[in-house]
Design a protein that fits this description.
With 268 residues, the protein is an all-alpha fold. It is 71% helix and 0% strand. The longest helix is centred in the middle third of the chain and has 27 residues.
Length: 268
């Protein structure tokens, strides 16, 4: 019985925390779903830097996806070959999905930026949801409950993928609806900081999740100010910087995974 409790509970505040966070996320979900369907703006595909080089269109936005492939490969190698990642063994598949998703982001995003359209954007967003949802399950397992993280992993992966496929289906029928994909993107921005703030980690170097969160926010800002940054810097655009800073965030997380230590229950 004690072993079961230890497996299912990460800290003494998890039940209240889960309930509180769930209520907040539920309210946000209801609020978003009450809105009218949101179509994908075609202006989304208009990048400030559309320069070609070596006959590759949007060269720098394509090339800047290579770091995702490199860090994703490094993560998979560290997980299965060198075995340098300190992880929850019960959720090894979750860490695998995280770095596999990251690697696939490099290919999917590179493909999208070659020929930007709603059709190719699907292959950018599918691996993104794979990595995002795997990361959420990992954080739940490390901060709330190992058992809960395991149980939620595959449902979260399915929900993430379904949100992209649903959007693609609605776009193909002339009435695009991004609401579910927006929830998949936005809810973690609310849930993750709350979990990191109020729950106790299973490992040291928990600050690397904060670094990842901050680089993600910074990447979104670079994306938003794509044109302005390109006009100021001229050599590089905000969108290209978005890719680089997002990959850097994952590299910092991977480094933390390699250096961290298990925190004993009595020390938390």
């Amino acid at each position: 019985m004690k072993d079961r409790e230890k497996k299912c509970v990460t800290n003494g505040y998890n039940r209240k925390g889960i309930i509180g966070i769930s209520i907040i996320l539920l309210c946000i979900t209801v609020g978003v779903l009450l809105q009218e369907p949101i179509a994908q703006s075609l202006e989304y595909h208009d990048f400030a830097d559309n320069r070609s080089f070596l006959s590759i269109p949007n060269f720098y936005n394509v090339l800047s996806n290579i770091p995702f492939i490199i860090v994703g490969f490094m993560g998979i190698h560290s997980l299965f070959i060198s075995n340098k990642i300190t992880k929850l063994d019960e959720l090894k598949v979750g860490y695998c999905f995280l770095f596999l998703g990251l690697l696939l982001i490099g290919f999917g995003s590179g493909y999208y930026h070659l020929w930007p359209s709603n059709h190719t954007l699907v292959w950018d967003r599918l691996p993104m949801t794979l990595a995002f949802m795997a990361l959420i399950a990992i954080i739940i397992a490390e901060y709330l409950s190992v058992e809960l993280g395991k149980r939620l992993l595959y449902p979260l992966l399915i929900i993430g993928g379904a949100s992209v496929l649903y959007w693609d289906y609605t776009e193909s029928n002339g009435a695009g609806d991004l609401r579910y994909y927006i929830l998949v993107q936005f809810l973690p921005l609310i849930a993750v900081p709350l979990i990191l703030l109020f729950m106790k980690p299973a490992f040291s170097y928990g600050n690397r999740y904060w670094w990842l969160f901050l680089t993600y926010i910074l990447a979104k800002l670079f994306e938003h100010f794509d044109t302005y940054i390109f006009e100021v810097l001229t050599a590089i655009s905000g969108h290209t910087l978005k890719h680089l800073i997002a990959a850097l965030g994952m590299l910092l997380l991977l480094n933390g995974y390699k250096r961290r230590k298990k925190i004993e229950v009595n020390d938390r």
